[in-house]
Amino acid sequence: MLSLADAQSRLSDLVAAARTAGADAADALYHGDRSTDVHVRLGALENVDQSEGEEIGLRVFVGQRSASVSASDLAPESLRSLAERAVAMAREAPEDRFAGLAPEDRLLRGSAPDLQLDDGVEPDPATLKEQALAAEEAARAVAGVTNSEGASASAGRSQIALATSHGFSGGYGAGAHSISASMLAERDGQKQRDGAWHWVRRLDTLDSPETVGRLAGERAVARLGARKLQSGPMPVVFDPRVTGSLIGHFLGAISGAAIARKTSFLLEKLGQAVFAEGITIHDEPHRIAGLRSRPFDGEGLPTAPSKLIDAGVLTGWLLDSASARQLGAQPTGHAARGVGGPPGVSASNVYVAPGKVSRDALIGGVKRGLYVTELIGQGVNGVTGDYSRGAGGFLIEDGEFAHPVAEITIAGNLKDMFLNMTAADDLTFRYAVDTPTLLVEGMTIAGD
Known about the structure:
Elements: H1 4-20, E1 25-41, E2 44-62, E3 65-71, H2 76-92, H3 125-140, E4 145-164, E5 169-187, E6 190-200, H4 209-222, E7 232-238, H5 243-253, H6 256-260, E8 281-283, E9 306-310, E10 313-314, H7 321-327, E11 335-336, E12 344-345, E13 350-352, H8 359-364, E14 368-376, E15 386-397, E16 400-413, H9 414-419, E17 421-423, E18 433-434, E19 438-446
Parallel strand pairs: 7-14, 13-18
Antiparallel strand pairs: 1-2, 1-4, 2-3, 4-5, 5-6, 7-19, 8-9, 8-13, 9-10, 11-12, 14-15, 15-16, 16-19, 17-19
Pfam family, one: PmbA_TldD_2nd
InterPro entries: Metalloprtase-TldD/E_C, Metalloprtase-TldD/E_cen_dom, Metalloprtase-TldD/E_N, PmbA, TldD/PmbA_N, TldD/PmbA_sf
Domain Metalloprotease TldD/E N-terminal: 26-90
């Protein structure tokens, strides 16, 4: 894996080669990573996986025609050939009046913020094995756990660098550390499975193996005795570990491409209330050691904190340069890309601001409802907002958990769900998308 300095130098040479080959403009992206993952089961080592790779991608423009190519051979002579091939491809491509690099006057200038994403720590396989074994041992010690699907510990590093022909060059590295465990519990002939995991950028913030393992075991045991519910309407409370997908549907609906293609259920909703008044959603790319923190976007534009939803009101779209041109707007610093193609968009560290009511009070106010800890399937229509997914969790009766629930479906429409959402005050930062416990009124349960 190249150093960041070497990667940026290689990218600058590649962009220059593309210009020499006839490109009017070009940008190039480098991505390198290495990782080690150790998996154990029933107290024994199952496998150790180690990987390392690097790729480079080039995007060239000839007039309003463009092409993207990628390669894993980073030798200078191979990259010169790559540049010539990309320009030849672009000359044969159809014209796209929205294609082009990001506006030069909006590029990140000066030093990028240090987000402390890379702690430089790479534990050896023996250390990772000890962590995985400790997690599984703690999980199997929970009364009711009868079998293990295993536990794992992993560590890795990645580096990203970007260069453009109109003056941007930058890069950053990021670390990754994780522990996970998955357990089986059994009682009266019924078996249930659940797990836990934690992923961080810096090792000193990773939960202990014992904490992760114990939680995995407790979750599996808590699901024993699960049964279906009678079909009908009821409020649904979403546990923070499953709400990322719920907010993810919102993020997809405000992507520039979806708006430009008119394929979003939030089309024409800019500046209007699309969530309940008590909901504010933040995008925080500069969070120290955040899972999706980044100093610049996939086109070299600076990133900045923003409110995507402000007291229920939709404030804007997520735009890369192409979708911004289509919509007559400016890019928002949300471009994201891999080495193999043009940019799309992505938010960074997203979170729903905490509400004013405690989790206990939120649940305590539910006469009869469902507390969801698991979502299954992808039954969501991004054009209409229709929502239908398999779910599991716990029945709420008179503000208390009654019994586990499984094999049911929850349904509604995201437009209505967002407007009938209440947030508790128990926000913690643990995932790429974080929320407090969320209550959604008026959903439909399909069970018995």
